[in-house]
């Protein structure tokens, strides 16, 4: 009688610090908000306030980056319209970049301070794994189940063309799909990140919104769920 062995793969996160900036800002906010736990682990009021200030400033920086990217795309479109027009659209007054009041300025290297705070918390005799999970300073281990995979990705521009960067994880590849205004079609099966979409750009002086989504590939078959849709505006170039 043959014995059947079932291998369960586990994805181990060796580092408790969230990699993406928005997630890291959220992690900092959660850590700083647990004042009672931090106090019980030996943190002074000044140390807790400093951690909260780091969280607020990181959150501010993430929002500023997102707003500035959207603003940059809008100003490029406005400049193209101002120079070339499109035959129908009226040129409205220029929208100035919105100003915001920055939170308390902190020193550089927020991540190192967060790691130091996490180490201090874990060194306390009052520390427990449960408290670490609440503070989000414990590495997360989750079963690797390909059927539940859902890609996450970001898009940025390089020389006028979209560049797509995703997290490969334990999968073999991703299928990238694009909608340029006529519905989704398969663009590429990519085995490494990032991927440059070098497709022809719109005519000079015009723009278009391209939409993307992707799904993981394993053992030469698509698995899991399609990612959330992401869009980016591309512009005609000489």
Percent of residues in beta strands:
15-25%
Low-confidence stretches: 1-13
Question: What's the total helix number?
Answer: 5
Number of domains: 2
Quick one: overall form?
A: flat
Give the oligomeric state: single chain
| Class by alpha and beta content | alpha+beta
Rg for CA atoms? 23 Å
Helix content: 25-40%
Give the N-to-C terminal Cα separation.
Answer: 70 Å
Question: Strand-and-helix sequence, N→C?
Answer: EHHHHHEEEEEEEEE
Total beta strands: 10
* Mean of pLDDT: 89
Q: Mind summarizing the main beta sheet?
A: 5 strands, antiparallel
Structure, described:
This protein is α+β, with helices and mostly antiparallel strands. It has two domains: 21-143, no CATH class; 147-235, Immunoglobulins (Immunoglobulin-like). Helices cover 34% and strands 23% of the residues. The chain contains five helices and ten strands. Strand 3 (153-158) and strand 4 form a beta hairpin. Helix 1 packs antiparallel against helix 3 (45-84) and helix 3 (45-84) packs antiparallel against helix 4.
């Amino acid at each position: 009688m043959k014995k059947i062995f079932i291998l369960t793969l586990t994805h181990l996160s060796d580092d408790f610090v969230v990699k993406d900036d928005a997630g890291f800002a959220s992690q900092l906010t959660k850590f700083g908000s647990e004042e009672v736990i931090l106090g019980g682990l030996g943190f002074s009021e000044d140390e807790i306030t400093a951690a909260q200030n780091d969280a607020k400033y990181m959150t501010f920086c993430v929002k500023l980056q997102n707003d500035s990217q959207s603003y940059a795309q809008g100003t490029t479109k406005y400049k193209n319209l101002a120079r070339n027009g499109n035959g129908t659209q009226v040129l409205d007054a220029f929208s100035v970049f919105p100003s915001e009041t920055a939170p308390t300025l902190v020193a550089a290297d927020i991540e190192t301070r967060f790691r130091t705070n996490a180490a201090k918390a874990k060194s306390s005799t009052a520390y427990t794994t449960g408290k670490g999970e609440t503070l989000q300073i414990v590495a997360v281990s989750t079963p690797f189940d390909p059927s539940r995979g859902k890609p996450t990705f970001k898009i940025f521009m390089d020389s006028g063309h979209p560049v797509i960067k995703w997290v490969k994880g334990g999968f073999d590849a991703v299928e990238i799909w694009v909608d340029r205004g006529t519905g989704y079609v398969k663009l590429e099966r990519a085995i490494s990140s990032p991927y440059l979409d070098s497709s022809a750009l719109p005519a000079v002086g015009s723009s278009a919104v391209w939409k993307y989504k992707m799904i993981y590939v394993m053992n030469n078959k698509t698995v899991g769920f399609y990612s959330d849709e992401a869009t980016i505006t591309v512009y005609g170039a000489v």
